[in-house]
Structures are given as structure tokens and as C-alpha cells.
Amino acid sequence: MKRRNTATQEAVLAVLASKRRAMSQDAIIKQMTVDADRATVYRILNRFCEDEIVHKIVADDGKQYFAVCVKCDDVIIPGNHFHFRCTKCETIECLPSIVEYSVPESYKVENLNCVLVGLCKECS
Amino acid sequence: MKRRNTATQEAVLAVLASKRRAMSQDAIIKQMTVDADRATVYRILNRFCEDEIVHKIVADDGKQYFAVCVKCDDVIIPGNHFHFRCTKCETIECLPSIVEYSVPESYKVENLNCVLVGLCKECS
DNA sequence: AATCTATTGCGACAGTGTTGCATTAATGAA
DNA sequence: TTCATTAATGCAACACTGTCGCAATAGATT
Ligand SMILES: [Mn+2]
Ligand SMILES: [Mn+2]
Ligand SMILES: [Zn+2]
Ligand SMILES: [Zn+2]
């Protein structure tokens, strides 16, 4: 299954790369110049997740948000970081803060989905 | 707005109290002996949240899960604890582990939604 | 140009959570 | 007890999200 380059994929990535935030499919399509079908954008985003170009966060509104896997302060932010959702400006951003946790004996953690909710710097 | 006691409310609470897990509205209704309307159960659960009888977790499947606010090892588990979702037995439980985080200057955290995903003790 | 097949658009679907509104029933006063 | 008040419910309807099947389109390669 070799990947192909398409205008729609580049448009999706361009939006995600320009904003420094995690965005919902809804918000991504609104920001896109090219029009694309909802289902297509979902497929593109899921493909990006498989290829680890973006990562997915499920916020406490139940929606999926996607963000590019970027470097921050010259350190690659891995999957296991906190996210922050501002209830006022309705944005979600990746925090440079790593999630530290401990689980009971013999539990196996494969994934994290940690979202802090509140007011961001600008809104508080 | 004074609260009234009803059989449905007690049934919902009975289910949540008997299981030690966080449950979705779906799962709660399946376990209930009394039948009740979907919408009613949601209203009951949201009321319980307001009254802080239960707390709500949004898992990475985008669904809302509800759990009674119980004591664990004689220590009250507050709202800011991790949750664990087992992908095999499809349960969500409250972990006794507190979420430790740090946010950038002047961010205000009002809520947490932190879910660890993987295999629980029995399933791993 | 011809071929292969990844990608897309469209329609359809299941599931979740919410709301409006008429009806029922819990509660406290008479 | 009876009555009045209104919280709680059942039902229908709705918006929204994420997914999938399938035929059509269009990258990539020879
Ligand atoms: Mn992130
Ligand atoms: Mn909990
Ligand atoms: Zn903000
Ligand atoms: Zn399990």
C-alpha cells in the first residue's frame, strides 16, 4: 500500500501545520481552501495518524482533534504529553509537559489521552 | 429546584454503586432492572454530576462514562485521578493515582480528563 | 499511452448526546 | 386525606460525529 500525493492531503497538512493547535475535522475543513469531502478528510487524518505525521486527541467534548507531531524547544514532543483545552477560545494545544503516571501491578498502558481543561494564557 | 426521589434514579445509582467501574449510559441501561428512557438516564446522570454524586469521564472512544465518587483504601478519590480503559474487557476504572501536571504561566486548569488505555490486570 | 490501484466523493448508516413538550408522579401544604 | 405545585419522565425529534461500501477519479509506474 504505497502512499500517493494529492492536493487534498497537502491542504489538510498545510492547515494543521500553519495552526499550532489540535483541530477537529470540522475546524480543519473550514480552514481549507480546497474543498473536500468529510469522509475523505477523516480518511486522510487517520492515514496521517498511522504514518505518525499527526496524533489524535479525544477531548472531553467527545470529539477527535488532530495535531502535527512537532518539535518544541528542540525536543520532540512524544505521544505522552498533556493537552490543554481552553473553554473560552475553544482551542486545544499540546503542552510540553510529560504525563507521569503509575498503574497497579501488571497493567499494560498502550496509550494516553490526557486533557487539562480550563482557561489559556490569553483567556484567563 | 428541590430534588425528588424516584425509582429510576435509585436504579441508576444502584447499578453504578454495585459495579466498581465507570459505565456508559448504554451499559447502565443494560444492567438496570427497571426500564427507563435513554434521555431520562442521561438527565439523571447529569443531575448526579451536578450534585457530585458521580463524576464523568470522556474516554478515547468519545463516549461519556460515569462512576460514583467513592472512597478507595479509606482515601477519598478526588476528581483529579487517572482512569484506565482496558481495550479487551472494555471497562473503565478509577485509578488511585493522582494526576500531577504543570501548565505554563497563567493557565487556569478547571478540570481534568486523563485516561490511560491498555490492558488491565486480568486481560494482560 | 496503458495499467494498476490508492484515493476520492457520495450516500448511507449507527451511535451518542440533547432538547421540546405533553404527561406523570413526588412532595409539602391545606 | 386531598389538593396544588412542579420536578421528573417518556417519547419523538434533532444535530452531530465518525465510519463504511461502492463506483468514479486520478497518482504512479512501466
Ligand atoms: Mn499533542
Ligand atoms: Mn474516576
Ligand atoms: Zn483560550
Ligand atoms: Zn481488561
From TrEMBL, chains A, B:
Give the required cofactors. Answer: Zn(2+)
GO molecular-function terms, A-Z: DNA-binding transcription factor activity; transcription cis-regulatory region binding; zinc ion binding
Q: Which Pfam families match?
A: FUR (PF01475)
Q: Which free-text remark accompanies the cofactor?
A: Binds 1 zinc ion per subunit.
**Does the entry feature the keyword Metal-binding, yes or no?**
yes
Residues given in the record as Zn(2+) binding sites: 86, 89, 120, 123
- Choose any GO biological process term that the UniProt entry carries and state it: regulation of secondary metabolite biosynthetic process
Gene3D superfamilies in the record, alphabetically?
Winged helix-like DNA-binding domain superfamily/Winged helix DNA-binding domain (1.10.10.10)
Q: Which UniProt keywords apply?
A: Metal-binding, Zinc
Give coiled-coil spans as residue ranges.
Answer: none
SUPFAM superfamilies in the record, alphabetically?
Winged helix' DNA-binding domain
Q: What is this protein called?
A: Fur family ferric uptake transcriptional regulator
Organism of origin? Albibacterium bauzanense
